[in-house]
Amino acid sequence: MTQASTPTLHNTAPVQAAQQTLQLEDIHLPATPSLWPPAPGWWIALALLLGVIGFIARRAYRYRKIRQQHQYILNVLQVLQQDFAQQPDPEAIASINQLLRRLALMFFPREQVASLTGHDWLKFLDRSGETDEFTQGSGQLLGTAPYQNRLPEDSDIEGFSNAVENWVKWITREVKA
To answer: What is the pTM of this model?
Structure first.
């Protein structure tokens, strides 16, 4: 064998010939990704965040509205009870009854409250307030007094006011005024 036919390790002629024929250039790095438009995961995260913010805002609005209504009803109830203590009459009891109904409609479904009258209304007040003051105690005035010209002489005015006040406190115990 001749030396020309055996390849040597130091022979770079074929590599140089390949580079000249291919004319390769350096590796180019890709451009850095832009910030806009964001990846789909960010869109999903944004949608979830907006949903949570909307949910919280709606709950806060409803809570504020109920709290305002609750405060208004408590103020009106206080005025009605003061008037009732000075001049007990059936009209004042009818006004208190109407106020209790409005409060019940705030906290219970309309279908459950709106059609109740008489003894059924008193049973509802007892059941929802976990008491028996309206069907068996002084709260019975709500069922009978609005339809009379005058209150009976033996009416327990203070007991009636306490029963109404306790029911309102029980129903609104979760609403911080």
So the answer is: 0.62
